Amino acid sequence: MSMGFWSASRRVFDLSLGEMLWSRRTIFMALVVGGPVVLAIIVRALDMFGMSALRVNGRTVGGIGVFGVMMWMLFLRFIVPVLAVFYGTALMADEVEDKTLTYLFTRPIPRGAVLVGKYLAYVACTMLVVLPAVMLVYFLVVPFREVPGTFMSLVTDLGLLGLGLAVYGAVFAFVGAYFKRPLVLGLVFTFGWEPTVMVLPGYLKQFTIAYYLQALVPHAMPTDGITSLLQGVFRETPPMAVSLAWLGAYAAVFLWLATRAVERREYVLEQ
């Protein structure tokens, strides 16, 4: 008896989440997110000795400002795309490499449900590792006295991280399901296309995910000079509602394209 699409997706999610959490990629992910944590420890040590870790126009940037810079430059612009590339492009490739794809496809479940279930497991797995690291960075660099007035900034940042992981993951899930060399294409998109067009004048930046994510960042950052610094580097920012609409459309469209690609593609397992 064939299972419904969402019931099948939930089954695949339950099966895949545990495998992802105990995979070698999770060790890699822990090492990647450990970098900002080490940097936050250094910032805290410098603060304890009365030294400033970051200055803008001769002014010392407060802890929440330092956290905002780390959030944007390290997490949203580097860690989130990198994790999405390595996880998203491998959602189906790992099954092919491990020769377990036949087992999944012979079950009475829709092929697209396999992709969706593994995609949801990727989102849950990455958030379970990345979000605690972000919280640890926050409590290391932000003085305790500033926590009550800035905690909502942390909540907003956690939401932005989840959104970024979901959108980038959907894009790279499609790349992994459709193309033969998905990892190479994903890295070119992440470290070639997006950084290049983001600094060029014109409309091409509107075809990047970072363009819409950056419009949401200032809402999670204080107005102590560091926001104006970032906005000076990235002058063009669309309205928040427009950014959310485009990011939601990116996630929905590319996840749908990924499921269609999985349903139509003929997978050949090497002996």
At a glance:
The protein is built from 11 helices and 2 strands, in the order ααββααααααααα. The protein is an all-alpha fold.
Structure description:
It is a single chain. The protein has helices at 5-21, 24-48, 63-88, 90-97, 101-105, 111-141, 147-178, 182-198, 209-214, 226-233, 240-264, and strands spanning 55-56, 59-60. A hairpin with a 2-residue loop joins strand 1 and strand 2 (59-60). Helices cover 74% and strands 1% of the residues. With 271 residues, it is mainly alpha-helical. The chain is built from 11 helices and 2 strands. It starts with a helix and ends in a 7-residue tail after the last helix. The longest helix has 32 residues, at 147-178. Mean pLDDT is 82; it is low at 219-234. The protein has one domain (5-264).
Largest sheet: 2 strands, antiparallel
* Helix content percent band: over 70%
Strand content: under 5%
Q: What's the overall average pLDDT, rounded?
A: 82
**What is the CA-atom radius of gyration, in angstroms?**
20 Å
Provide the number of structural domains. 1
Distance N to C terminus: 31 Å
Structural class: mainly alpha
